[in-house]
């Protein structure tokens, strides 16, 4: 397999850059889409922006289930290639696509039957509720594009072909950006769809990216053969995928629980506070997405070299990844501290939103000083098959720390104190993550 020489012998600095850079670029394009999408929605009115902010927990849950499943497939597929087990790699890819379809069906049903219940649990404002239902139904019912795109891309990543992932993700995101104003405002003869147009542009880009990624896998990926004819779910393979994938799904889903809880805490003060929190998540994606792109390049390198029992290459990859991630987050910290008013101005922020949002962005961005290290360490756990360690760190951060602290601060000190819950929780992640890494190093790495 030509992939083996690259993953097992190329110098780590070159390998990590070659694996990660295409993903970083595509993730930046995705982040740009996230921001542009909300900018156009904010041009409708603030109620529409608040509705999209309230829909974020479900969108995040959708991505969490897809990404977690993909993490399990990625780790198993890369490890199988490192062990030269072609049959196991093929089974991982084929069963991964089957699981992606099952996940889509579940979310489509939720979008159809659960959207109104979800929004009515957060607000009594009928305008926001109707905006939210219109947006979320489309995103969930047509989510097969997202599930298929992510799985096909992770199969490419696992075999080291991250350049093609950059092409597929970039294509989907750029189409999204182009069609957002066309569908929202009714340009070039299209009917004005309002917030439905934002959702339609999203799923359109995802479906095109899925078709493109599937075609590339079929024509260009020689390391993995996806079985369609005569396919039957393989229970053992699915079990291995979700041994890593379920903790990852739960870990990322906890973010949805945290966001939903924060929205409930913030809406007591004002719907504008909820909108500010939603805008923060859109803005921070431009800082975090490159780190996630770095992760996507790092995980198959560590998994492959763990299968090949190369301790030196594993540790080199971890150290270099942490250094790059911390550097990216420091840049993000500087931006949020220096120009928060300009960032909020992108979303048609009025004086009320600025008075809440400027101190919020400055306070929350303190967490960036610690987040880069924590993200990399959590992904190392996943690459080594210990996804439950990542789960422990995430539960401690988002449920044990953020929500209780935010609730306490809201009742004791007021709105501006609520934001301090996030950087304080990130500090706890550094401590817990470091202790767990020492444990996994002794158990899995030191003896290689």
Architecture overview:
- Helix content is 85%, strand content 0%.
- It has 448 residues and is an all-alpha fold.
- It has one domain.
- The longest helix has 37 residues, at 46-82.
Rounded mean pLDDT score: 88
SSE arrangement, N to C: HHHHHHHHHHHHHHHHH
Structural class: mainly alpha
State the total count of DSSP E strands.
0
User: In one word, what is the shape?
Assistant: globular
- Beta-strand level of the residues, as a percent range? under 5%
Which runs of at least 5 residues are low in confidence (pLDDT < 50)? none
Q: Span from first to last CA?
A: 23 Å
- The number of helical segments is 17
**Number of separate structural domains:** 1
Q: In which range does the helix fraction lie?
A: over 70%
Largest sheet: none
Radius of gyration: 21 Å
Summarize the structure.
The chain is mainly α.
Give descriptors for this structure.
448 residues; mainly alpha; 17 helices; 85% helix; globular
């Amino acid at each position: 397999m030509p992939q083996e020489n690259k993953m097992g012998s190329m110098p780590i600095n070159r390998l990590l850059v070659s694996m990660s850079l295409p993903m970083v670029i595509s993730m930046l394009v995705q982040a740009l889409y996230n921001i542009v999408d909300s900018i156009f929605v904010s041009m409708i009115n603030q109620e529409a922006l608040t509705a999209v902010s309230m829909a974020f927990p479900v969108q995040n849950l959708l991505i969490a289930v897809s990404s977690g499943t993909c993490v399990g497939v990625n780790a198993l597929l890369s490890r199988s290639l490192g062990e030269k087990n072609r049959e196991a790699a093929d089974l991982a890819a084929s069963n991964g696509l089957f699981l992606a379809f099952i996940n889509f069906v579940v979310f489509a049903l939720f979008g159809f039957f659960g959207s109104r219940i979800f929004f009515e649990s957060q607000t009594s404002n009928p305008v926001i509720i109707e905006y939210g239902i219109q947006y979320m139904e489309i995103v969930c019912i047509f989510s097969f594009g997202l599930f298929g795109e992510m799985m096909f891309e992770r199969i490419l990543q696992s075999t080291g072909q991250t350049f093609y992932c950059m092409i597929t993700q970039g294509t989907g995101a750029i189409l999204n950006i182009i069609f957002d104003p066309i569908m929202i405002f009714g340009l070039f003869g299209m009917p004005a769809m309002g917030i439905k147009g934002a959702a339609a542009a999203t799923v359109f880009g995802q479906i095109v990216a899925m078709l493109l990624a599937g075609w590339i896998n079929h024509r260009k990926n020689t390391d993995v053969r996806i079985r369609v004819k005569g396919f039957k779910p393989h229970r053992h393979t699915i079990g291995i995928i979700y041994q890593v994938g379920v903790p990852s799904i739960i870990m990322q889903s906890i973010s949805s629980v945290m966001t939903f809880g924060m929205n409930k805490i913030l809406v007591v003060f004002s719907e504008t506070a909820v909108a500010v929190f939603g805008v923060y998540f859109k803005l921070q994606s431009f800082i975090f997405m490159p780190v996630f792109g770095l992760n996507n390049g790092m995980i198959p390198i560590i998994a492959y070299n763990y299968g090949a029992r190369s301790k030196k290459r594993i540790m080199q990859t971890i150290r270099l990844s942490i250094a790059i991630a911390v550097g990216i987050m420091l840049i993000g910290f500087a931006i949020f501290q220096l120009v928060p008013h300009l960032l909020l101005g992108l979303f048609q922020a009025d004086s009320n939103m600025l008075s809440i949002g400027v101190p919020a962005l400055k306070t929350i961005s303190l967490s960036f000083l610690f987040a880069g290290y924590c993200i990399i360490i959590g992904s190392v756990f996943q690459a080594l098959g210990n996804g439950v360690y990542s789960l422990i760190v995430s539960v401690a951060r988002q449920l044990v720390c953020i929500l209780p602290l935010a609730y306490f601060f809201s009742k004791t000190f007021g709105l501006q104190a609520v934001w301090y819950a996030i950087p304080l929780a990130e500090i706890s992640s550094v401590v817990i993550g470091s202790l767990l890494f020492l444990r996994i190093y002794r158990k899995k790495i030191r003896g290689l």
